[in-house]
Amino acid sequence: MVSKKLTIVNAQGFHMRPASTFATAMGKYACDVTLRHNGSDVNAKSLMNIIAACIKCGNEVEVIADGDGENEALAEAVAMIENGFGE
Fold it and tell me: Which portions of the chain are predicted below pLDDT 70?
């Protein structure tokens, strides 16, 4: 298991487009990917779960990857969040 804490930097947070892009990207990995936000764990491969978490700009999240390809999944998740999903 690998993890990293990050701050959401894009102005709109995890709204529909970045949540969709993120869930799709994480879905290609065999490992489990979780977003931990405000003490709750969210399946990072589920668009609806990410949207329901109401993750806003400035919120801290922890990305947790566990299983085959965990390092690659974490690296991609970190890159996407740190660059603000290209927004």
Answer: none
Active site residue 15: yes
Q: With left for phi above 0 and alpha for psi between -120 and 50, is residue 41 left, alpha or beta?
A: beta
| Model pLDDT, residue 58 | 96
Instruction: Write down the domain spans for the chain.
Output: 2-86
3-state secondary structure (DSSP) of residue 6: strand
Q: What is the DSSP letter of 29?
A: S
CATH number corresponding to 2-86: 3.30.1340.10
User: Of the residues 15, 20, 43, 46, which is catalytic?
Assistant: 15
